[in-house]
Amino acid sequence: MRLTILGSGSSQGWPGVFCGCKFCQQARTLGGKDIRTRSGALLGEKHKIDFPPDSFAQALRQNLDWSKLEHLFFTHAHSDHFYPAEIKMRRDSFNRPPEGKEDQGVLYIYGSESVYQGLTAVLPDLNEFGVVFHELKPFKAIKAGTVTAVPLLANHMAGDAFIYLFSQGDKTLLYALDTGWFPKATWDFLASGPILNCVVLDATFGLGPGGGGHMGVPEVMETKAELSRLGLLTDSSIVIASHFSPHGGLNHAQLEELLSPHGISPAYDGMVTDI
Ligand SMILES: [Zn+2]
Ligand SMILES: [Zn+2]
């Protein structure tokens, strides 16, 4: 399973769209891994997690082709993860099918009821856009091509948000952004589940503390310790922190210095991990 982190920033991006703080100015100077677009990731070429407003720019930057997407999982309906206006570009008048194909094919979209409401508010007739929606219920697995996904309850957006346990072959990925300390039902589910080969955790607030449905580095370390205590991590499990806000106050080099000794890698835009 190949995980590509396309965006490693929080809601305003880093530098923030309109932000003039010293951390955003520093990022504008440093460039490189200190430029963080809004949160999203790709599994292989056909499975995507979230579709933020930066998705088009991310595809250009990474030389990706969204016409190959088949499955799109939404964590929740906050605008830094969910930008349905762009999915309108699937309308027939805006694109043509690949050579030798009659139509553009179906994009399967997965999410909660509020994602469905948000999606159909912008795209009232999903069929017109080649979209088929599957409403997910917490802890109920769904098969999406070669990937199995289990939505787990996040501690975010008054409980109307998911983190995901993905599996493909014998590999597993826990994708857990936009959540504070996991709800008990999620811990209980994980405790009875498989070993985790890769875990992506929310470190929005940098040095922290976390709050408001996000974590900081202290909670990321506690979450890793709890996953280890439950026997869910091995020496080869990969732990990544992401969704960084500029106001967490740590640039990429500082995050690396802080996290690496604890076996945690700070994400950056374009980070590719073979799980
Ligand atoms: Zn977010
Ligand atoms: Zn959010």
Task: Write a brief structural summary.
It is built from 7 helices and 14 strands.
Description of the structure:
With 275 residues, the protein is of the alpha/beta class. It has a single domain (2-274), classed as 4-Layer Sandwich (Metallo-beta-lactamase, Chain A), CATH 3.60.15.10. The protein has helices at residues 22-30, 55-62, 84-87, 113-122, 184-191, 217-229, 252-259, and strands at 2-7, 40-43, 47-49, 71-73, 107-111, 131-135, 142-144, 147-153, 162-168, 171-176, 198-202, 238-242, 264-266, 271-274. Helix 3 (84-87) links the parallel strand 4 (71-73) and strand 5. It is globular and about 55 Å long. The structure holds zinc ion (2 copies). One zinc ion is lined by residues 10-11, 39, 78, 80-81, 178, 243.
Proportion in β-strands:
15-25%
- Please report the number of helical segments: 7
Amino- and carboxy-terminal Cα gap: 5 Å
Counting DSSP E segments of at least 2 residues, the number of strands comes to 14
- Biggest sheet, spatial arrangement of strands: 6-5-4-3-2-1-14
Q: What is the string of helix and strand elements?
A: EHEEHEHEHEEEEEHEHEHEE
